[in-house]
Specification:
Helices cover 64% and strands 1% of the residues. The chain is an all-alpha fold. A two-stranded antiparallel sheet has the order 1-2. β1 and β2 form a beta hairpin. α1 packs across α7, α4 crosses α6 and α5 packs antiparallel against α6. The N and C termini lie far apart (41 Å).
Length: 285
Amino acid sequence: MRSSNPVFSRRGFSRDNGAYAGFGTQQPQAQAGTATNPYATNPYATDPATGMPQAPVRGNAMTIDDVVSRTALTLGTVILTAAISWIVLPVDSANINKSYGIAIGAALIAFVFAMIQSFKAKPVPALILAYAAFEGVFLGVISSAVSTYTGPGTVVQAVMGTMCVFAGVLIAYKMRWIRVNRRFVGFVMAAAMGFMLLMVVNLLFSVFAGGDGLGFRSGGLGILFGVIGIILGAAFLAMDFKMVEDGVTYGAPREESWLAAFGLTMTLVWIYMEMLRLISILKGD
């Protein structure tokens, strides 16, 4: 199977008895009923049965601290560039077209960087940080626009909502209330594909017919799809946690922590955007 997060789309992972074996390309299983370690040849891998290193660790295996530090750096870049763009690209009657133009350009550049990284065999920190910087510019302008037309409290509420979703999913995952298995991934992927297809159809209708197209982003339907978007983001987050856990358990190389940071950042941006949209609809704007 493959991860739901675009960042992990080229990193399949094997599965046995409903549990994921970890990062990396799919490996043939040694025997039925035995999970395959995709890093069996990695001298830093741990034995999943005992949790003990298979060989003396020499500091090259990915750890939770690595993931946390890389994620903090990537998210910090997003926040910093968002704050700068909010200040220097105000969304008002005099600058709205310029600001929106720059935001759209930044979003397209961020998308290109994300796609390039997704097809790279290994994570490239420069690409990941460049994606974060341009994504921050886009988020800064959009957040400024929402703040201008709905009130500054909307952005604060969206940030707090995103943090609550992250904390809630992390607690639920650690308590094993959420179990990421083949059925979970299949359901989430099917729901995500349907969600994105509907959004594309709605966008096409809005371009050619004007307004909000089929109405999926306003009124009652907008609220419903906003909630669905946040739930999907939470599901992606749980799958990201699983990928990180498997990477640490099976001794993924330290550089993979950049990939984990990239995936977590993309998921949090998704949740924030859906949260921002939902709150704006609830406020009637």
